[in-house]
């Protein structure tokens, strides 16, 4: 079920389902899509708390709000407001960037970190694109790159209500607000990843054409002890394309945590 | 109705190649430009602007980036040349895409400099810019208009403050010592113009008393003008025709056939210019939420459908001159034809004080362009000056 929780003056729409130790799931730039199977798959082993990011879906975007830093502090406040502890922090794509920004600030509330094809960091040179320009390719090209099997990710917008379509349009605008320039990364974040002192697992789809597994290996170099696993037949959104395999990897990682 | 001639200084020799690639903008590599040919064309187009001064019409310059449709990359640079070559014409930038410019104080400096150079002939358009200008500037399309208004306010304050320096600590722009030299001749600042196609723009422009212009579609212009007049009345003043501008393609000839042929050739600009790789047509946040919902439902063209006066859809890529005339995108024929068409248009719109005369779209030859300007300037423009508020609107 979803409910509205107001934190730091921001009305957040939050999914909260399942029982057990808490898992905070931070959704990708494509949105939360709570009716899809992955939240339920994760909720078999955890209490899953999944906010719609400010400006996405039904969550508000206040005038003053505008950076990934703002989201990171907001979610640290959310954890405090919900009195959560021993949280497994899971972020996918854009949500992985937010998760990393939270974890470099503090790891106190977290027992572990899962980053699924995160954006947010730059490793390459000035002429290298670490992250594909998703706004410089057409939708068909984006689907080809983001999916092992693009047909599985198609959304029939004609079947959505105007309210749902407005949520999609707001989310796209908000993603631009947070990640347009520098493109989907914070140039300074790489230098602080060493502060992440909790067990960290990187998960990558073996067919990800948005950020490569080599990019994921670079993350592992910066976060002490981090390791990377790939999921077969998945692109940039393994939680979406292979929800059961994704949930199984998360559960297996969680089982190793104290 | 005053007349302002403009041309985008197109690099039309590359259009065929761009059309074959499916995009004339942003991702069309500049290997398709012969820079020597570009220089010849720029000089030719500047000669055409100079003729406007001789025949007594005003001049407008705009800018686009990374495109074969427009080689003007900087309105102040083009107007600097034109200011030196003209004596009487007023000079309009329409415009400065200020939300895509990192440094609004520099814009204010350039405008003040031009106003001094031209002896106070500058009119200053401050515009949002087209959606496909976002990518070349790499400006953030989210909250674009919020950035626009901050830049707008800073530019006007920089132009009108004489006891500076002042400091500016805004959301987007930060300066500790704003104090531009020189300052403009026209005080408190040169007249300000905006462009738009929405009721909202009409309302916002009315609140500031700016001139508002729209491009190539009478059907979209009228509701915007009406919103402007309504808001002005609410604020206690009457917006006359001099607050409204309209851009149209115009082909005038010694015969009707010659005028139509010229318009047809200029209209190739409209048929060609929108051709751009789809991801650059609608950056997220550029269009309103409502427009984006329509686009998600009905495809990328959903918010750009142009209709004629009967409500029938017009495809800009293939429209005939007659269809363009039906949508008030084109006015064409003999000087009498064009005058009569514009007189009727002025009446339908409730009084439009400025005609932005799109008189060279690319493929029209130099001789035809010069003749088009000359005929219009001598035989149509003086009669348009007598068109004011139409009788029907004045009687309301």
Topology:
The complex is a heterodimer of chains A (258) and B (396).
Chain A: E1 2-7, E2 10-17, E3 22-26, H1 38-43, E4 47-51, H2 68-81, E5 87-92, H3 94-105, E6 110-116, H4 139-146, H5 162-179, E7 200-205, H6 213-222, E8 227-231, H7 238-241, H8 243-255
Parallel strand pairs in A: 3-4, 3-5, 5-6, 6-7, 7-8
Antiparallel strand pairs in A: 1-2, 2-4
Helix pairs in contact in A: 2-3
Chain B: E1 2-7, H1 15-21, H2 35-55, E2 58-61, H3 75-85, E3 91-97, H4 104-117, E4 122-127, H5 134-137, H6 144-160, E5 166-169, E6 174-178, E7 192-195, H7 199-208, E8 211-215, H8 218-234, E9 244-252, H9 256-272, H10 289-298, E10 306-307, E11 313-314, H11 321-326, E12 330-333, H12 335-349, E13 354-360, H13 366-384, H14 391-394
Parallel strand pairs in B: 1-2, 1-13, 2-3, 3-4, 4-7, 7-8, 8-9, 9-12, 9-13
Antiparallel strand pairs in B: 5-6, 10-11
Helix pairs in contact in B: 2-13, 3-4, 4-6, 7-8, 12-13
How would you describe this protein?
The complex is a heterodimer of chains A (258) and B (396). Chain A is built from eight helices and eight strands; from the N terminus they run βββαβαβαβααβαβαα. Chain A is α/β, with parallel strands linked by helices and 258 residues long. Chain A has one domain: 3-Layer(aba) Sandwich (Rossmann fold). An eight-stranded mixed beta sheet of chain A has the order 1-2-4-3-5-6-7-8, sandwiched between helices. In chain A, helix 2 crosses helix 3. Chain A starts with a strand and ends with a helix. In chain A, 50% of the residues are buried. Chain B has a single domain, classed as TIM Barrel, CATH 3.20.20.30. The longest helix of chain B is centred in the first third of the chain and has 21 residues. With 396 residues, chain B is α/β, with parallel strands linked by helices. Chains A and B meet through helix 5 of A and helix 10 of B.
Looking at CATH, which topology of chain B would you report? TIM Barrel
Radius of gyration of chain A: 17 Å
State the CATH superfamily name of chain A: Alpha/Beta hydrolase fold, catalytic domain
> What fold name stands as the CATH topology of chain A?
Rossmann fold
The CATH first-level class of chain B comes to Alpha Beta
Global Rg of chain B:
20 Å
Approximate strand percentage of chain A: 15-25%
In which order are the strands of the major sheet of chain B placed? 1-2-3-4-7-8-9-13
Q: Average pLDDT of chain B, to the nearest integer?
A: 93
Main sheet summary of chain A? 8 strands, mixed
Residue stretches of chain A low in confidence (pLDDT < 50, at least 5 long) are none
Instruction: Tally the beta strands of chain A.
Output: 8
Given the helix and strand composition of chain A, which structural class is it? alpha/beta
In quaternary terms, these chains amount to heterodimer
What is the overall shape of chain A? globular
Q: CATH superfamily of chain B, please?
A: Luciferase-like domain
What would CATH call the class of chain A? Answer: Alpha Beta
Q: Which range best describes the helical content of chain B: under 10%, 10-25%, 25-40%, 40-55%, 55-70% or over 70%?
A: 40-55%
User: Number of folding domains of chain B?
Assistant: 1
How does the overall form of chain B come out from the CA principal axes?
globular
């Amino acid at each position: 079920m979803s409910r509205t929780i107001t934190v730091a003056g921001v009305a957040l729409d939050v999914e909260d389902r399942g029982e057990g130790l808490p898992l905070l799931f931070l959704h990708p730039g494509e949105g939360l899509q709570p009716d899809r199977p992955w939240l339920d798959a994760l909720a078999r082993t955890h209490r899953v708390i999944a906010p719609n990011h400010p400006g996405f879906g039904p969550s508000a975007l206040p005038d003053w709000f505008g950076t990934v830093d703002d989201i990171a502090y907001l979610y640290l406040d959310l954890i405090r407001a919900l009195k959560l502890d021993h949280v497994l922090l899971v972020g996918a794509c854009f949500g992985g960037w937010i998760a990393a920004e939270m974890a470099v600030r503090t790891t106190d509330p977290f027992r572990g970190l899962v980053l699924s094809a995160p954006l947010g960091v730059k490793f390459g040179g000035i002429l290298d694109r670490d992250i594909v320009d998703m706004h410089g390719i057409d939708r068909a090209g984006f689907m080809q790159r983001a999916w092992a099997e693009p047909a599985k990710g198609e959304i029939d917008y004609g079947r959505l209500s105007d309210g749902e379509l407005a949520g999609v349009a707001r989310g796209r605008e908000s993603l631009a607000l947070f990640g347009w320039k520098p493109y989907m990364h914070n140039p300074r974040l790489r230098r602080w990843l060493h502060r992440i002192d909790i067990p960290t697992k990187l998960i990558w789809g073996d067919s990800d054409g948005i950020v490569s597994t080599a990019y994921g290996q670079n993350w592992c170099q910066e976060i002490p002890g981090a390791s990377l696993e790939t999921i077969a037949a998945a692109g940039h959104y393994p939680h979406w394309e292979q929800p059961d395999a994704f949930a199984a990897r998360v559960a297996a990682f969680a089982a190793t945590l104290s | 109705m005053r007349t302002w001639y403009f041309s985008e200084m197109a690099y039309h020799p590359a259009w065929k190649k761009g059309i074959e690639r499916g995009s004339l903008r942003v991702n069309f590599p500049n290997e398709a430009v012969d820079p020597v040919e570009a220089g010849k064309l720029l000089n030719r187009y500047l000669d055409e602007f100079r003729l406007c001064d001789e025949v007594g019409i005003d001049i407008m310059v705009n800018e686009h980036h990374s495109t074969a449709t427009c080689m003007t990359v900087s309105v102040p640079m083009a107007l600097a040349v034109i200011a030196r070559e003209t004596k009487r014409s007023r000079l309009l930038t329409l415009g400065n895409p200020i939300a895509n410019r990192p440094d609004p104080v520099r814009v204010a400096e350039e405008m003040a400099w031009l106003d001094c150079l031209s002896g106070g002939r500058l009119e200053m358009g401050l515009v949002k810019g087209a959606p496909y200008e976002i990518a070349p500037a790499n400006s953030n399309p989210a909250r674009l208009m919020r950035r626009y208004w901050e830049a707008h306010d800073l530019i006007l304050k920089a132009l009108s403050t004489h006891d500076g320096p002042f400091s500016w600590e805004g959301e987007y722009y930060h300066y500790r010592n704003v104090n531009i030299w020189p300052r403009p001749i026209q005080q408190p600042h040169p007249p300000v113009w905006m462009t738009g196609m929405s009721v909202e723009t009409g309302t916002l422009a009315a609140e500031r008393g700016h001139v508002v212009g729209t491009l190539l579609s009478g059907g979209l212009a009228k509701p915007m003008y009406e919103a402007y007049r309504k808001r002005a009345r609410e604020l206690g003043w009457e917006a006359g025709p001099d607050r409204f501008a309209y851009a149209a393609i115009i082909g005038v000839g010694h015969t009707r056939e010659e005028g139509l042929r010229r318009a047809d050739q200029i209209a190739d600009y409209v048929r060609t210019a929108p051709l751009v790789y789809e991801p650059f047509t609608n950056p997220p946040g550029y269009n309103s939420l409502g427009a984006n919902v329509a686009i998600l439902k009905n495809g990328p063209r959903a918010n750009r459908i142009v209709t004629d006066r009967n409500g029938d859809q017009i495809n800009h890529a293939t429209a005939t001159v007659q269809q363009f005339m039906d949508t008030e995108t084109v006015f064409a024929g003999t000087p009498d034809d064009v005058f009569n068409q514009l007189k009727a248009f002025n009446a339908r719109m409730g009084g439009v004080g400025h005609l932005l005369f799109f008189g060279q779209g690319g493929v029209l030859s130099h001789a035809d362009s010069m003749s088009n300007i000359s005929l219009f300037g001598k035989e149509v423009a003086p009669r348009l000056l007598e068109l004011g508020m139409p009788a029907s609107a004045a009687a309301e």
